[in-house]
Structure formats: C-alpha cells, structure tokens
Amino acid sequence: MAKQLYNPPSPLETRILSKRFGLEGSETLDVYLANDGYKAFLKAKEMAPEAIIEEVKTSALRGRGGAGFPTGLKWSFVPRTSPKPRVIVVNADESEPGTCKDRLLMEYDPHQMIEGILIASLAVQAHVGYIYIRGEYRYLVEAMDRALEEAYARGYLGKNIAGTGWDFDLYTHTGAGAYECGEETALLDSLEGKRGIPRMKPPFPAVAGAWAMPTLLNNVETFSAIPPIIRDGGAAFAALGTPKNGGTRLVCISGHVNQPGVYELPLGFPMMKAIEEVAGGIPGGKKLKAVVPGGSSCPILRADECDIAMDYDTLAKIGSMLGSGGMVVLDETTDMVGFALRIMRFYAHESCGWCIPCREGTTWMKKILTRFHEGQGRREDIALLGELSKNMLGRTFCALGDAAALPTISIVEKFTEDFETYLARQEVMV
Amino acid sequence: MTFSPQLEQRFAKMLTRYPEGRTRSAVIPMLIYAQDEVGAITRDVIEEVAKRCKVTPVQVDEVVGYYSMLHRKPQGKFHVQVCTNISCLLVGGEELYEHAKKKLGVGHKETTADGQFSLEEVECMGACSWAPAVEINYDFHHHVTPEKLDQLIDGLRKAH
Ligand SMILES: Cc1cc2nc3c(=O)[nH]c(=O)nc-3n(C[C@H](O)[C@H](O)[C@H](O)COP(=O)(O)O)c2cc1C
Ligand code: SF4
Ligand code: FES
Predict the structure, then answer these.
(1) Which of A80, A218, A344, B98 has the smallest C-beta neighbourhood within 10 Å, fewest atoms?
(2) Is A167 helix (H, G, I), strand (E, B) or coil?
(3) pTM (predicted TM-score)
(4) What is the mean pLDDT of residues A22-39?
C-alpha cells in the first residue's frame, strides 16, 4: 500500500528529486541505498573538483531559494584552495509566503540532501556543514538529526566516508522565527548567534561567510538536485528543462485550486496546464484573476499573462520572477486591496529595521492600505502607493525592500479597478 | 539554575558543533530549547546561556527581542498559531483566526486565564499547499476548518 503523502501525486509530474517520496521508509538510509543512494557520491569521489563543478554547470541548475543564480557558477566562486577552511551552509529557513517544498525534501528524503551536500563538499573542499532550519520546523530538526545520526552510524558522515578517505561533519542548527534570516547574509549572522541583520556585500559569502570563512550557501532543493545530476549526468538534467533553465523543480501550488499541492514539474512547464490539469483547476467553475508565480515577493500576473512557460527567463521577460516555487492562484472573487494589504503587513512585520526606506516605507504603505481596506481610502492613495514602492526599489540594504515593493507596484498597476471599486463604494455610503 | 539532564546533554553536544572559539553560535538554539523547558526566557536563562556560550548576558539579551519565537513571558501550555498569510488567507485563514479568538476568548499573543492556551496570528509557516494551517506548539495541522479547530482545542482541554 502506498503511504499517505501530504497531497496525492499528479501523473503529469516528472519525479526526479521526489522519486522516493512515496516509498515506505523513504527517510531511512536502507531505502535510500536500495534506490540509487550514494552512487553519485562514489562517482564524484573519482572526479576532480573542477569536473564536478563543470557537471553542475552543464546541468543548468539554478538556485531554488529565490534568486535563481546558476549553481555551478556559485560553486566556482568558492576559493577551494584557500588556507581558510571552507564551510557549507544549507538554507532551510523556508519562509517565503507560498512556499512549502523544502519541508518535503527533508522529511521524505533527507539522505538525498545529505548526499548532495557531500558532493558539494568535494567540489569546494569543505569538511563541515550546517543546516539552518527555521524554528517552526522543529519536527524537521528532529527528522534531520535522526537521518544524520544514521548516516554517522553507517559511515556516510564523519571520518573516511564510505571508505573513500573523505571526512565531513554535518550538523543541524535551529532558527527562532524571523523571515529576514532566510536572506543569506542575515542567516550567517544568525548562525553566529546574533540578530539576523544583512551584511554589506562584497565580500560575498563565497569569500567571507560564516565566521569569515569561505562559505557555500544553497537552498535545500538545490542541494537535493545534485545527486541525480552527478549520477545521470548534467546534460540529462538540463534536457528536462529549457535552455539555461535545467531540470525539474518542486512547484507549490496553493490558493484557489481543486488540488493544491507540491508537484515536481520540469522547468518550462506551461503555467495554465499546471493550474488546470496538475492542480485540478479552479473550484466552482470560477475564472482566474491572478497568479503569484513564485512566492509573495514576485510581481503578480494578471490572468491574461499566465499563458506562459514556467522558467526563470520567461518570467523575467514579462517582468516577474520564478522565485521560490510558491505559486498562488487567485480566482475572480479575490479582493486585491485586501491581498495587497496582507502582503504589506507581512513585510512591515518582517522588516529588520536596519535601513530607513524599508522600515518606513513598509510601515507607511501598510497604513495606507489599511485605511483603504477600511473604506477610508483617498483617490491620491493609489498613486502614492505606486510612488512609495517605486522609491523603495533598489534603495534598500537587502532584497526585502524590493520584495515588498514589487508585488505592490504590480497590484496597484494591474488591478487599479479593485481600488476604484473601494472608492465607488465609499461614495455610495456617503 | 539547572536544566534537565536531557537538555544538559543536548547543550553539551551543541557546544562542540561550531569551530574553535565560536560557541556564541549556540546562543539561539540554546535559548529556544531552554524556553521550551523553562517556559520563557527569564533572567536566569539569559545568564545561563551566556555562561555556557562564553558571551556577555547583554549579547544574549539583544537577540531575544529580535526573534519572534523567543519570549520573556510564559505562553499558554498550548500555543495556538494560526496563519493568515496569502495562501491561508485565500482559503479561510482569517475566518479561522477570528474563530480561534472567539473559541479561546483571547486575542493576538494573549493567554487564557487558566494558562492553558495562548493564541498568535502568525506569518507563513510553510504549509501553504495544505492551507489553512495551524501549528500548536510544534505540531502542524493542515486543512483546518473551524470545526476541526474546535475538536483540536477541546481534545487538548480534555486531556489535561
Ligand atoms: C528577505 C529574503 C528572504 C529569503 N528567504 C529565503 C529562504 O527562506 N530560503 C532560501 O533558500 N532562500 C531565501 N532567500 C534567498 C537567499 O538569500 C539565497 O539567495 C539562497 O538561499 C541561495 O541559495 P540558492 O542559490 O540555492 O537559491 C531569501 C532572500 C531574501 C532577500
Ligand atoms: S531592506 Fe529591510 S530587511 Fe533588508 S536590511 Fe533594510 S530594513 Fe532590513
Ligand atoms: S501562507 Fe499560510 S502556511 Fe504559507
């Protein structure tokens, strides 16, 4: 009997990273080993670091944490012959609204991620790594700790891994509630026991990261994609997607759909097909109004913009982003003023307060949107929201400022009529 | 102040994880585990954590206000966290939060008089595709309806 997953799989998926999810005991080392586990690490052990990095470049894998930076290129920036020891950090902070996939990779297949980290350790010549897990995911800290313990006991972590002579230690580290700690440099400060305030870049973490040591930092899903890439070759992974957008990714579909869930789809998968066929369409025969393509930080798409292929470059072309893979579907009944307000409340709450444009900008916009939502809006507010968010763009210390501004600009511009409706309703009341 | 032997063991392990001389890194994990046992970040907890991590109490104190899961006052025995962020919002998260307020008779970050339950409206907790989501202490509950929430709360009430 198949085990109960969070949501039933779809026949339209291409299950590469999630291929073991449905197996009974998929979180154990035995099931992992019986299903291709550690073939890739043993192969990588025979490769030079440059060759591993080349293979990752060939795969066209791009970071799954949000920014979509080419992974192989990032790995090549880490000075692997530096006299300073290298550190690997896994970003398991998963807090971008709409995103719930890293959870599954750690819960169902922790050894795949561990193997990916081990391969990365060969590529950048690191001997220690930390998995930074958001505080709310305590059960995953425990699940990861069990997996690590098993890997240590069976010689897949620690000294002389699988008899290869390679040494690597890996630990979990829990956060304590702060979206900002998902930003890579804030995360590093948090890992050092401080408040999560972003750092000035450069130096980039690759050169001076955790404890000023060269640091390779990637998302959970990015590391989890490494074993299949090394095992079956970078070219095979790349071929699943579109040019420069290799492989598959875990798309988290939520909101107004009949079968919300996390589904592994190749890059370039048609967005409308994902909504209508993978996620079973919109309930009650309602029409599509908008889509948040990759987490709350992304500019929102109007229904007529959604007939597109889901890859980084296509989304960039239409002025949005693929982000973290959190796709939120909104039907025609959705009130965009309320939606914009909820997004801004989030960013105002999570702004770390370090720089003024973000701290003040998010608070001010929250105030305006609240007023509007309560029926006290003014016509000038619509333009003011646009102006305030545009003024924030590119002027903040970290990307959280842009993350608050971008969706707001898109909502105000693309759904002005929703704001107009509020004003019209107010006039009737008067 | 003393912690349970299990926690002492956990702390001892934690301190060996980080590079030489970097025990400050254990501050946040230690605080949250200590809070789980003690109930809140008290003065004593701060001093103990500072001592173990070889930092000043001020260095520990300054992180407490930054992290949303750390708190200086005890919460309810069961801390009910209801997400109202975008994915939950679209499928009834706000109504669920309003329902929780009525059911428990408390508001955001408040605790019931008997100390059993506290309530918090929280940001996305990584359960968007199985929304609306609620986390009680560290346990996730998915596709939560007002009726399901009532059952959860009544169940906890009865059991304790
Ligand atoms: C405010 C903010 C929050 C972020 N949150 C996360 C997160 O929760 N998880 C994540 O992997 N990346 C997050 N990122 C992106 C990271 O800074 C970083 O780019 C990423 O972890 C790098 O890994 P990748 O190249 O594998 O994607 C966030 C960025 C910002 C600006
Ligand atoms: S942009 Fe916002 S979150 Fe980022 S450093 Fe500035 S205040 Fe902090
Ligand atoms: S929006 Fe509620 S769990 Fe993500």
Answers:
(1) B98
(2) coil
(3) 0.97
(4) 98
- Helical H runs in A46-109? 49-58, 71-77, 102-108
- Name the E strands within A195-325: 215-219, 248-255, 261-266, 269-270, 288-292, 301-302, 309-310
Q: Which amino acid is at A48?
A: A
Instruction: Report CA Rg, chain B.
Output: 18
pLDDT tens by residue, B9-24: 999 999 999 999 999 9
Find the mean pLDDT for residues A41-56: 98
Q: Which of B66, B86, B140 sits opposite A328 (nearest CB)?
A: B86
- Please name each of the domains of chain B with its CATH number: 5-66 (1.10.10.1590), 78-159 (3.40.30.10)
For the segment A157-176, what is each residue's pLDDT rounded down to a tens digit? 999 999 999 999 999 999 99
Q: Please identify, in words, the CATH class of the domain defined by A248-331.
A: alpha beta
pLDDT at A65 over 70: yes
Residue A427, pLDDT score: 85
The domains of chain A are located at: 29-240, 248-331, 336-429
Q: According to the model, what pLDDT value does residue B1 have?
A: 85
CATH class of residue range A29-240 = alpha beta
Q: Is the pLDDT of residue A1 over 60?
A: no
Shortest-distance ligand to the CA of residue A220: 1
Give A270's strand partners.
Answer: A309
Task: Tokens 């105030």: give the residue.
Answer: A367
**Which one of 2.40.30.10, 3.40.50.300, 1.10.1740.10, 1.20.1440.230 gives the CATH number of domain A336-429?**
1.20.1440.230
Is the ipTM, as predicted for this complex, more than 0.95?
yes
Under the phi-then-psi rule, with left for phi > 0, alpha for psi from -120 to 50, and beta for the rest, what region is A266?
beta
Q: For residue B94, give the chain A residue with the closest CA.
A: A342
Measured from the CB, is residue A91 less than 6 Å from ligand 1?
yes
CA distance B160 to chain A (A): 22
The CA distance from B90 to the nearest CA of chain A, in Å, is 6
pLDDT band at A68; cut points 50, 70, 90? very high
Same fold yes or no, A29-240 and A248-331:
no
Q: Over pLDDT 70: what percentage of chain A?
A: 99
Burial of B14 (0-12, 13-18, 19+ CB in 10 A): buried
Structure tokens at A253: 């579909």
Write phi, then psi, for A156 (nearest 5 degrees).
-100, 0
Question: Are A261 and B129 a contacting pair at CB < 8 A?
Answer: yes
Ligand 2 atom with the smallest distance to the CA of A398 is 4
Please judge whether B128 and A252 are an interchain contact, meaning their C-beta atoms are less than 8 angstroms apart.
Answer: yes
Cβ contact A262–B31 (<8 Å): no
Please give, rounded to a whole number of angstroms, the shortest distance from the CA of B140 to a CA of chain A.
9
Q: Which residues of A322-335 are buried (b: 16+ CB within 10 A; e: fewer)?
A: bbbbbbbbbbeebe
Q: Please write the tens of the pLDDT for every residue from A327-340.
A: 999 999 999 999 99
- H-type helices in A251-378, by residue range? 271-273, 312-317, 336-350, 356-371
